[in-house]
Design goal:
By secondary structure, this protein is α+β, with helices and mostly antiparallel strands. About 75% of the residues lie in helices and about 5% in strands. It is built from twelve helices and four strands; from the N terminus they run ααααααααααββαββα. It has a four-stranded antiparallel β-sheet with strand order 2-1-3-4, with helices on one face. Strand 3 and strand 4 form a beta hairpin. Helix 6 packs antiparallel against helix 7 and helix 6 runs antiparallel to helix 10. The longest helix is centred in the middle third of the chain and has 54 residues. It is elongated and about 110 Å long. The chain starts with a helix and ends in a 5-residue tail after the last helix. The mean pLDDT is about 85.
Length: about 425
Amino acid sequence: MDVFAVLLRATLRYKWRALVILAFAGAATAFQSAEPWVVKRLFNLLAVQTPTTATVGLFLPVIGLFLLVQVLSWVGWRVMSVIVNRFEPVVMADLEEKSFDYLLGHSYQFFADTFAGSLVKKVGRLARAFERVSDEIAFRLVPVIIILVAAVVGLSLQSLLLAGLFTAWIVIYLAFNYFASRWAVVTDTARAELDSEVGGALADAVSNAVTIKLFPAHGYEREKLNEVLRRRSRANTRSWDRHEAIFGVQGALMIVINVTLMWLGIRAWVAGTMTLGDLAFIQTFLGLVFSKVWEIGRSFRQIFDAYADGKEMVEILKEPHGIRDARGAKPLRIAHGAVAFRNVSFSFARTPVLERFSLAIRPNEKVALVGPSGAGKSTITKLLFRFYDVQKGRVLVDGQDISRVTQESLRGQIALV
């Protein structure tokens, strides 16, 4: 079960909203990609007109067209944002509900072995991972794809050489970002795991503050937290350094293609094969492309960060429940309330606690379990609740084997004071 597979399944429950969001993102970006064509028309007019008051009116239709495409793009983004605000919260709530339900289905031993504070952070992180991935796809990746396609088509109409060079640059740029992000996700995952560890340490220390005061353990707890904080600080530095290196290479690649296309464009203008409007078109499109593809590196970072954040909760979702209802389990039916342990054997790891233990408690009978620490008194109670499964023997309530009834109905019939 991969993080992205979990997020996709959650999205498909509201697929029509997702498709409408993508449609508006595409339309808004398409109107943006029309702006360089309007700029080209404007500069071609400027190149052939004498700057007088009388010629101002010739530019009004171009200015009106420029205003129109900008307004339509603005409307598209605003409508899309409104739909996003009604899409992401419900999917996030579904993910949190699913995580919560599955988490509580884990066994008593699972919770005994895991920091409660870190579990709380993991549940919220999966939902936030969806929000980040959804935002990156709708607001960045889809616009980038459309702008790049529009730029290649537009440049090919000006010069096949420029279009070919730009296409090769796109392949190199995107390939670099993909592999660089894979390289960075290693440190991102380590950072996320340590962040959960810090959250768990803080939550458990705060929830046990009274115990810490009763047993002078303030210094011990502080040192334990500081050790985790130092490790997280080093992990943050490693992660951020890798991303800064990626941003540096991105900037260098942009400088190369910008200067190359500018030089070739000027040579074509000198040769008379390009107009001033063509040069303005190329530079305007490059500015639009750079504003989008610069963000793609950050988008990859956000997506892989989200992957790292969601991975811990997905690992919990992948882990089978230690105690599960039997196939076809039925609710427990209480007639009298008799409890019986019959030849029960149980061990923690390899340490025997109960060996061929038998006990019969009649209805309305009061029984006290007395013995030294570690004799198995609390274990008997936990076996009755079916927090653990016995290795041998059976536990019966009114003659019904508790391993064959639902856990909810069993625990609903037992009161613990």
